[in-house]
Design a protein that fits this description.
377 residues; alpha/beta; eight-stranded mixed beta sheet; 12 strands; 14% strand; globular; four-stranded mixed beta sheet
Length: 377
């Protein structure tokens, strides 16, 4: 694009001005000018102070746009992308954050590429204060040397294991994606973002367009989980109501025909996005069978449905796809073992930063930046 910035940071938002203020504060703590870096705040017709927060920072790199009508998440992503001018696109949530100075490091890295490359990075997880519980660092990701990852092998693993580890694949959400790949995806399928889960769909679609990606090995942006965050539903069963409300806003949306409609919506949303990508890109996925038994085990791991419910409704489930009790129990054992392993690793990796402030995500991001400069992150 002529005179385009190298990177567009997109922040889709809807009535979370309280967290957006901190998210934007981290995004502007970068030295890069508007010639290299722009920030798009895409407001999905919020009724709070979202516009005032975006414009109140008075930073020329910030561009506020409003959908003018309430859109689905995918609709807001498409709208935001239509306003982005960058050669690369990075999307974060309105309760997420950017490590101060990390965009500058990312831009330096992107300029070294002879050809545009997908870039991803390790993600910390910060839990915002909720009710009487203070903010906390839920996961502190390690740093490691830069490496190349095989996207196609990772994507086929996801299909063979019913959705497990889809989150290891880069998507525009918390990864820098060349704009030309997103344009190619739109050309192939009519849209960039499909299903109710735009990040999951694009994570599974991009391997059909790019063989490899670069893992930069250090954190640039990271997850925040607030009281209204969909992502918190994976950590707290009480937050599943957020997901159900979110799914209800997709009017007349039809799930993949092989999925059991009697399951909770939260159990179907990720498999639906994966199966849609599989169908749209048969050149990559056509020879690989989706593992529905492993899919149910993965859903049970996140407590969207219980093992007992799956077993008691196995006859109904078989009306939509194959289901084998012993295989389901085998993959359930693997998933429950993975839960235990994750808890152990989280405990080992949850290094406490001296003086870490956790009242909000901005102070945590500043602490991370300071630790990085000292070589202790």
């Amino acid at each position: 694009m002529s005179n385009a910035p190298l990177l567009s940071l997109i922040i889709p938002t809807r009535e979370r001005a309280d967290t957006l203020a901190f998210t934007l504060a981290t995004a502007v703590l970068q030295a890069s000018s508007g010639r290299d870096y722009e920030i798009i705040v895409s407001d999905n017709l919020s009724a709070d102070q979202t516009k005032e927060v975006a414009e109140g920072l008075d930073d020329p790199r910030i561009r506020y746009v409003n959908t003018g009508r309430r859109l689905s998440m995918c609709g807001n992503y498409e709208f935001a992308l239509s306003h982005a001018r960058g050669d690369y696109v990075l999307i974060i949530g309105d309760d997420d954050a950017v490590v101060p100075g990390a965009i500058d490091s990312l831009l330096t890295l992107l300029r070294t590429h002879q050809e545009p490359q997908i870039c991803r990075w390790p993600l910390h997880t910060y839990d915002w204060p909720i009710d009487d519980r203070p903010g906390r660092v839920a996961y502190l990701a390690p740093t490691y040397p830069q490496k190349t990852i095989d996207l196609r092998q990772m994507a086929l693993f996801v299909i063979r294991n019913g959705g497990w580890r889809y989150y290891d694949l880069p998507s525009p959400y918390h990864a820098a994606i060349p704009r030309r790949l997103l344009d190619e995806l739109r050309s192939r399928t009519g849209l960039v973002f499909h299903s109710t889960q735009p990040d999951v769909f694009t994570a599974m679609a991009l391997p059909a367009l790019a063989d490899h990606a670069i893992d930069v090995g250090f954190t640039i942006s990271f997850n925040g989980r607030s009281s209204r965050s969909n992502g918190l539903g994976f950590a707290r069963k009480s937050a599943v109501s957020n997901i159900d409300r979110f799914l209800s806003e997709y009017v007349d949306y039809h799930l993949h025909p092989t999925l059991f409609p009697g399951a909770p919506g939260a159990a179907n949303m990720i498999p639906d996005a994966i199966l849609l990508a599989r169908d749209l890109f048969p050149e990559l996925y056509g020879g690989t069978t989706f593992n529905y038994d492993a899919m149910w085990a993965f859903s049970c791991r996140h407590r969207f449905i219980s093992h007992l419910d799956v077993l008691s409704r196995s006859g109904e489930i078989r009306g939509y796809h194959p289901f084998h009790v012993m295989r389901f129990l085998y993959f359930s054992a693997l998933q429950e073992g993975a839960v235990v392993r994750r808890k152990i690793l989280d405990t080992l990796n949850a290094r406490k930063l001296d003086g870490a402030a956790t009242d909000n995500i901005l102070e945590f991001a500043k602490t991370l930046a300071g630790a990085s400069r000292l070589g202790s992150n």
